[in-house]
Design goal:
Blueprint lengths: L2 H14 L23 E3 L14 H5 L5 E7 L5 E9 L8 H5 L5 E3 L14 E2 L1 H5 L17
The chain binds iron/sulfur cluster (SF4) (2 copies).
Length: about 150
């Protein structure tokens, strides 16, 4: 038996008893790193209302022009959010919207299974942006750990 063959068999034997590293996706999922930038999510106050004050800064800074913020004057005369849309078809996951927000109302979520059969399902309304699975309860800024 050649030396190379013996070497190969020894390696097979060595790895045979190691614990497998294969993850049985999609039944098993690995936790995403803390700084992972999944799709943007809107954050809510304790009463469930969006923290967003409709200032429009995220809309202005977004390089992909994928955010649309609609504002209205609330009953108390204060500017309030009337609607928020994020077109994920165009999103570059850059995180600039998160950086720009003065009230930490938007964060990069942990969701990464974003495939869809058309463009329409990837246009996220305010309701869908608020009902984010995974991360989304606390602000996540670039360069910082999860608070
Ligand atoms: S992550 Fe970047 S591209 Fe996506 S919505 Fe925010 S600013 Fe726009
Ligand atoms: S920057 Fe923040 S508060 Fe202003 S519109 Fe965007 S999410 Fe809302």
């Amino acid at each position: 038996m050649s030396k190379a063959l013996l070497k190969g068999l020894a390696l097979t034997l060595k790895t045979f008893f190691r614990r497998p590293v294969t993850v049985q996706y999609p039944d098993e999922k690995r936790p995403v790193p803390e700084r992972f930038r999944g799709r943007p999510v809107l954050l809510a106050r304790e009463d469930g209302t969006p923290r967003c004050v409709a200032c429009g800064l995220c809309e202005k800074i977004c390089p992909s022009l994928c955010i649309a913020v609609a504002a209205e004057t609330g009953p108390d005369g204060i500017r309030a959010l009337a609607g928020y849309t994020l077109d994920l078809n165009r999103c570059a996951f850059c995180g600039l919207c998160v950086e720009a927000c003065p009230v930490e109302a938007i964060a990069m979520g942990s969701e990464y299974e974003l495939a869809a059969y058309g463009r329409e399902p990837l246009v996220y309304t305010q309701e869908r942006l608020l009902a984010a699975p995974g991360r989304g309860a606390a602000p996540e800024r670039m360069g910082e750990g999860k608070p």
